Structures are given as C-alpha cells and as structure tokens.
Amino acid sequence: MKIKTLLYSIVLSAVFLAIAGAADLSGKWNAEYTTPNGETRQSTFTFQVDGNTLTGTVSSPRGESKIENGKVSGDEIEFSVTRNRGGTDVKFLYKGKVSGDEIKFTVTVGEGDRTFEMTAKRAK
C-alpha cells in the first residue's frame, strides 16, 4: 500500500511540475519582421494560457485572426492561424521558444513552401 501511495504522489507531483513549468505567455506580445518576399510587417499576439492550452488572437494591419490548435509545453509553443489572402484561406503555423520576455518563432506558410523567422517581445 505504501508503494502505491508513493507512486501516486510521484505522478501527481510530475503533473503539477509540468503545468507550473509552462511558460507565462498570457498578455500582449509585439513583433516586427520581414516576410519571405522582403516586406517589413508588424503583428500583435494576444495570448491566454489555460494549463497547456494556448488561445488568443494575432493582429496586424491586415486584420485579426483567431489562434487555432494552440499548445504550450514548457518553454515551447505552437499554434496556427488561418488568413484569407485574395479569396483563398492560407494557414500559418507558428512554432516558438520562449526565453524571458522574447519568443523566437519559425513561421511556416501554407503547405511549407515558405518559412520565415520572427521575434516577438512582451508588450510593456
């Protein structure tokens, strides 16, 4: 019986540590970046984190898109947004690593034919 209780305590502790270890992303983050075709753009990310689930929006001068399939695992995040470009829906996949008040993203556009890097900084 003691082994079962000890095992239960270890598993429960691991779950709490995993949740507590998730990066603190909630709030606004700003990024200025260069697209694959050389244009400079800005985006604002508004994140909400609930456990390992990431929700929110991505805004730019072209509009606002809802975050889809958002996940947080330690200091890594991943989500997608779908934007309408010229009557066609295009998916953008964001994979990032959080370090303090910065997130370094690799963004994949569409079916993976274009990627670019961006760094978002926590809004002050």
Structural write-up:
With 124 residues, this protein is an alpha+beta fold. The chain is 15% helix and 61% strand. It contains one helix and nine strands, in the order αβββββββββ. An eight-stranded antiparallel barrel has the order 1-2-3-5-6-7-8-9. The chain is globular and about 65 Å long. About 13% of the residues have low confidence.
Which key phrases capture this entry?
eight-stranded antiparallel beta barrel, 61% strand, 124 residues, 9 strands, alpha+beta, 1 helix
Percent range of helical residues: 10-25%
Number of DSSP strand runs: 9
What is Rg?
A: 18 Å
Order of helices and strands: HEEEEEEEEE
Helix/strand-derived category reads alpha+beta
Strand content: over 45%
Whole-number mean pLDDT: 85
Instruction: Summarize the main sheet.
Output: 8 strands, antiparallel, barrel
Poorly predicted runs:
6-21
Main-sheet strand order equals 1-2-3-5-6-7-8-9
Principal-axes geometry comes out as globular
What is the count of DSSP helices, taking H or I runs of 4+ residues? Answer: 1
Distance between the termini: 52 Å
In short:
This protein has one helix at 2-20, and strands at 27-34, 40-50, 53-60, 63-66, 68-73, 76-85, 88-99, 102-109, 114-122. The protein is α+β, with helices and mostly antiparallel strands and 124 residues long.
